Amino acid sequence: MKLKSNEIAGFIRRPPEHVRAVLIYGPDGGQVREVSDRIAKTVVEDLSDPFQVADLTPENLKEEPSRIADEAAAISLTGGRRLVRLRGATDVVTPAAELALGAETGDSLVILEAGALEARSKLRKLFESESRAAAIPCYLDSGAGLDAVIRETLSAFEVRATPDALAYMVEHLGGDRRITRSELEKLALYVGPGGEATLQDAQQLVGDSSALALDQIALAVANGDIAAADRLLQRGYADGLNAIAVLRAVLRHFQRLHKAASHMAAGDSADQAVQKLRPPLFFAVKPAFMAQLRAWPIQRLRLALSRLAEAETQCKSTGTPDLSVAGQTLLGLAYSASRGRTRAPAR
Questions:
Q1: Architecture of domain 143-205
Q2: CATH number for the 5-137 domain, one of 3.40.225.10, 3.40.50.300, 3.40.50.11540, 3.30.457.10?
Q3: pLDDT band at residue 347 under the 50/70/90 scheme
Q4: Strand runs (DSSP E) across the chain, as ranges?
Q5: What CATH code is assigned to 210-343?
Q6: Per-chain mean pLDDT for the chain
């Protein structure tokens, strides 16, 4: 079945008993895993119990397609429902998923975790059309949704955040739900119960891992430092950053450049334009940001924003090599920046 947005939270808390299988998919791998774990724990308390949980991989099904159906049909030796989990699912496992849904015996819950899937994906269509299955999308946290995640996580630790700190965190988090929660928990433990996180707290403690890596990539691209951008991209991919999160981080940086450039086009000086940015620009990156404003005319910033948006759309297409698309786009922008810098008149 295809769940409506207002049905998802209730489904996660208590999946209907008639549902035999759930597909959880989307570009936010951390959110996919978080939702998967929450649903799994409605069936099995200890997710590491080998008698109650069967963890499979696409490689298992490649060698033995009926394995998932056999696991779904198996009866628990210790009582209760069993759980069957498959991570890294793609359209290739669709026939095996059909076998699992067709199992006549057993009452196991099958959970498939997948990356971004287009509407025409065979696997997604199967789970959206089957009455005993459900599909749950997990999109990257942003805007009001990310704001809610931040407030909810901090509230659990009895911690508040100032408006500036909240705005900073909305800008620097959201690429991966697990990383977002980890960064917020670190901040909450530092502030302590009943405390209030300030902008300075957030700047010092939030985003020193993946978010900092994303910031460094964005700065290298906008600076026109092709070698650094390539090195940081490869390191980020190796550390688990996904292509869409990287593109969105660079997009946010270019949006801030465009906003400042728009203020300048309206008559503000560069300093005045930067002072109007919210959340405020971190002092350590201000020199580089000011140089980027000189290197990127507003017309080229508009083109860069279009290229980044188009690259994200391509990355969401089934079968597209998303890391390659993101890399080509970002290194292309870095090259454009380096050319623009060499053509810029002396000041």
A1: Orthogonal Bundle (1.10)
A2: 3.40.50.300
A3: very low
A4: 21-25, 53-56, 83-89, 109-114, 133-137, 160-161, 196-197
A5: 1.20.272.10
A6: 86
